Amino acid sequence: MWNGRFLGVCVATAVLCTAGTAAVLLLSGAPQVIVTVDSLPPAATVFSDGEGLGVAPVTLTLRPDERRALRLVRKDCADTDAVVDADALPAPQGLRRVFRRLAPPRYRMTVALRTAAEAELVVVTRPAGAEVYLDGARVGATPLSLRALQPGPRSLRLAHAACFPHAEDIILTPGMPLRVERVLDSKVEAFYREQIRQEPGQLTHVAELAHHLVVEGEFPKAVAVLRQGLDALKREDATLQARFFSEITQIYTRYYAYPPEPPGYKLRPALRAIVREALEKGLYNAKSLESQLKQMDNYDASHPL
Question: Domains of the chain (ranges plus CATH)?
Answer without folding.
Answer: 31-112 (2.60.40), 119-183 (2.60.40.1120), 187-302 (1.25.40)
